[in-house]
Write a structure and sequence with these properties.
Helix content: 40-55%
Number of strands: 4
Strand order of the largest sheet: 1-2
Low-confidence stretches: 203-210
Order of helices and strands: EEHHHHHEEHHH
Shape: extended
Strand content: 5-15%
Mean pLDDT: 85
């Protein structure tokens, strides 16, 4: 176990004290999202009933697909259900999971176990004795991740089929990447004079400091 230093420079060797030190730092940099001012869709989407996603439709086959994709080397969440167990019992649990997911959507609620996570500190760089040089990784329920994947696929399929995603969106889309974004940009600017300004994350951070 790595020995941490607290804000006073004293060594922390007790596991509980180390965990509390990590928790204090991670909580201090946590970002609270603003859920009261959510951007509204453009009018053409709002006024088009046929393009509204009223419900998430999925079948037991969709559950089977996600269970088949499970990587058994991944860590389990706070519920203690490891991917290997879920993978080896996928035929037996597929239908019960389908019922559970359907009821969760219908009731607009999720089990409490899905809201819990095992937070693991991952070292980045620098002094290993400083909590600031670690980033938190939350290990959540594998069953919840399967449910999230089912919802994600349904939402993406709806948006793609109804052309609700702008062609300029290259991130987080199948078949799109930074490379396709760059190629599209080059295609537009080739042959004509263009002024371009590029900002790195580091430059933006330094600008914010000064």
């Amino acid at each position: 176990m790595t020995t941490l230093l607290n804000e006073h420079g004293n060594k922390l060797s007790d596991d509980i004290d180390i965990a509390q030190s990590f928790n204090t730092y991670f909580a201090s940099v946590f970002t609270q999202e603003d859920t009261k001012n959510i951007p509204k869709p453009v009018d053409v989407f709002v006024n088009s009933d046929d393009k509204k996603l009223i419900d998430i439709s999925f079948t037991q086959h969709d559950i089977d697909v996600q269970l088949a994709k499970l990587r058994i080397d991944k860590a389990d969440g706070a519920d203690g259900l490891c991917p290997r167990l879920l993978s080896e019992t996928k035929q037996e649990i597929s239908y019960p999971l389908f019922i559970l997911f359907r009821q969760s959507l219908d009731e607009a609620s999720v089990p409490d176990d899905w809201k819990c996570a095992n937070v693991c500190p991952i070292f980045k760089k620098g002094n290993r004795s400083s909590p600031e040089n670690y980033r938190p990784v939350s290990l959540t329920s594998q069953i919840c991740k399967i449910f999230e994947a089912v919802i994600r696929d349904a939402v993406v399929q709806h948006m793609e089929s109804n052309c609700l995603i702008n062609d300029s969106q290259h991130g987080f889309r199948k078949g799109y990447s930074c490379l396709t974004n760059i190629l599209t940009f080059l295609d537009k600017v080739t042959g004509s004079p263009v002024d371009a300004a590029f900002f790195t994350a580091r430059a933006i951070a330094l600008q914010a400091l000064y």
